[in-house]
Task: structure prediction
Amino acid sequence: MIITGSRESPLLVYITALIALMLTLMPLPRSLGVLWPNLLVLVIIYWSMMMPRAGGILIGFLGGLAIDVFVGSQLGQHALALSLLCYLGIRLHLLVRAKPLFEQALFVLAALLIYEGVLWAIDGFSNQSTGTWTRWLHSFTGAAIWPLVAGLLGRLHSPR
Amino acid sequence: MAFAGGGLNSPSARDTAPGPRFFVFAVLSILLMYFDQRDGWSQRIRYVLQGAAYPVQVAVGSPRLLWNSTVDLFSTRATLRRENTELKARERELSLTAMRFAALEQENARLRGLANGLPPLVKRSQLADVVSADLSSQRQRLVIDQGDRAGLYRSQAIVDATGLVGQLVRVGPWSAEVMLISDPGHAVPVEILRNGVRTVAEGTGNEDEMRLSLLPATADVKAGDTLVTSGLGGVFPAGIPVGTVVEAVRDPDDILARVRVRPRASLARDRQVMALWFNPESPMAPVDSALVRELPEAPLARPVLEPPSPATKVTKP
Result:
């Protein structure tokens, strides 16, 4: 449970997720806000692949619930989408983490599109505004900065 | 479990079972969504979470506040003096208007056959600082630093010095969330001040623009018209400035006019807003605000799809 001691430390996962949540919620000008990646989702994908036992699906659920509260969407909407990504990350972690960063970024792109797709579907089912096409843009910027996120987070835990 | 048999991804016993756990969390999420739609006990969970979220919201909004106060710190004596003279001029102007307003109110009361003057519309007001702002194309919200503890309630009207800002959609213990009139999910019943034509102004997801999407092409509306709240819909009182018509386009092929409106309040730049409590005896007031509070789901302003019948008038005889 201590950052330096064990290989999978939940504390590290929760702290980085909290920081990522704050960066994600930062108020930004309109043009930048559309492109701003959801860093919390990226961080949670990373940890679910690198430390599948530290956060588990719980971190995805809690992180999604936090987004729901801050963004004001229905409780459970982001929680469901992010739990799904966590599940996929844990299921495929051995497959994906062996790949070079570029190929990982493609997996991440697919994951982010699934994430936004789930949100979009729930918006549609519950008769809410499904937004414009710009809501999908953050998936692409998210995948584009994946190498950066993976590099930064990789320094925080000892290499395998 | 059917998910658990992966050949490639089964290095240890614990890793092989994300399926059942995912199933549990998925069911939990769906239950939450289901109850959140129905407005039951999940409101209490919301309330607690809203309180827990407040510190993070303050932290997230702090760079903006820091920037604002830095700008304040460096404002020079000259700008302050200029601002002061401007404010004094404005104050003179306003006190003149207020004088006329008092006379008009007296006359209005006399015309209505009331012996004593009308009760004031606003019973109480509460200033609140904007803690953080979420101004995206899907959501236009502000978080303010007053909540349930200050007596704020859901679907309360929020204004700033210039006009209507929005209404409260969520109230936590120390904070509340304002849905701006420019939110794509928001619609406010308005009337054109010049001729009393009633319609609905919808948000577009852009804090500088709203739209009147239910006006027929033959409606009498032109650029420069001022819109005020009509008092219908039970959330806002009548007569609060909403915005100015920027452009009214009439396409001969289209039954409806395309009207763009610029909100009067500076929605994105507000640092302080005001929550209002209305006097239910005032003829301008929306339905009794205590009544709104007791409704399980407070009525958000929804587009009125047919012209209001005379019976739905808010004005009391």
User: Anything to note?
Assistant: The radius of gyration of chain A is 15 Å. The CA atoms of residues 50 and 125 of chain A lie 34 Å apart. Chain A has one domain: 10-156. The mean pLDDT of chain A is 86.
